[in-house]
Amino acid sequence: MAEFTLKIRRYDPQSGEPPYWDEHTVDLEPHRSVLEGILQARNEQDGSIGVRCSCRAAICGSCGVRINGQPGLACHTHLDKALESAKDGVIEVEPMGNMPVIRDLIVDMDAVHWKKVQQITPWLIPKEPVPEREYIVPRESMIDITQSMACIQCGACVSDCLSMEVDPLFIGPAALAKSYRFVGDPRDAAHKERLKYLSEDKHGIYDCTHCFKCIEACPKGVAPMNQIMRLRRISGNVYDIKDRNNGERHEMAFVKNIQKNGVLHEADLLPDSYGGKFHPRAVPELISSLPVVVTALLRGKVTPQKALLHSHKAPEGVKEIFESVESRDGGIEFNLYIEGTDEDNAEPPGAEGVLEKVAEDVVTEALEEAPVTPAGGEGSSA
Known about the structure:
The chain folds into three domains: about 1-105, Roll (Ubiquitin-like (UB roll)), CATH 3.10.20.30; about 110-240, Fumarate Reductase Iron-sulfur Protein, Chain B, domain 2 (Orthogonal Bundle); about 260-370, no CATH class. Helices cover about 45% and strands about 10% of the residues. It is built from 18 helices and seven strands. It has helices at about 35-45, 80-85, 110-120, 140-150, 155-160, 160-165, 175-185, 190-200, 215, 225-240, 245-260, 265-275, 280-290, 290-300, 305-310, 315-325, 335-340, 355-370, and strands spanning about 1-10, 20-30, 65, 70-75, 90-95, 100-105, 105. Strand 3 (about 65) and strand 4 form a beta hairpin. Helix 4 (about 140-150) runs antiparallel to helix 7 and helix 12 (about 265-275) packs across helix 13. The N and C termini lie far apart (about 55 Å).
């Protein structure tokens, strides 16, 4: 047995009082869970502590909280492990983010999480005619969607989603991972309709900023951001959906930019996302960005010469990578549930060291050309 100090964030919206921290010392074996520590504190010291739990086996997802600032399942986090990341030996426990607090560690998942899941039609729409006995589905297809099916709806990814902090209307990683569960299922009859909706919605698949927070937060390896990227690829490459938000064109502008320059040339990114500098769609966007450009020029963040005459050209290695990818008949999806481990697939066939060497050359070239900033001075960016 050992003593552990839990610092629990307390808040009752109905009381009118602000949130506060409450410390409790519990006596448990180090391998016991943080949830057991919270329950001991509630049972023996303060019965008013609000916490939600059910299975206590990392299956139901009910006990999602933030432990030392990181999202996780309280029942799946051992006290000794939590202590390793604790400040001053005190384990901090607080409610998940991006959702309103009902009481203490209990958040209103109906208001955010489940509301967004309902947006994406979370059920299979069967193809017609329905077979008399059963659908015959390739084994690989079912294994593929197993990754998104592994979601236990704990809300950890929603809690730490940076896009949702900026745009609370963003459909969110959990709901979009759920979408791939049906878009990746060959039995579903509404693939294009689902993708059209998620592409056209300005809070849909193109609202994700690739911060990787949902991948780090997920306790089940669902990797929601990976599922979002798959939805984008299928939308653009398979169904050729050109969304009104210019999300697909924006992604292609990034690809073409790197293919041409080797490194990102941001002056071309905005107009290319709208069809080019002289395209009618691009003109209003370029005009609206003039205040930002003028500010950057005045502060020395960018010069007219570098903005208009980009000096970078893509190295031969980058061109070879693009040629190799574009010569393939179809895309290659990497899914840990099918392929094994990252270590097993660390080096793609035919790309022995090429990507690493090209990346090293591009970074070296960029550093050599970057202006030297005095210590304590303001850095520069494109």
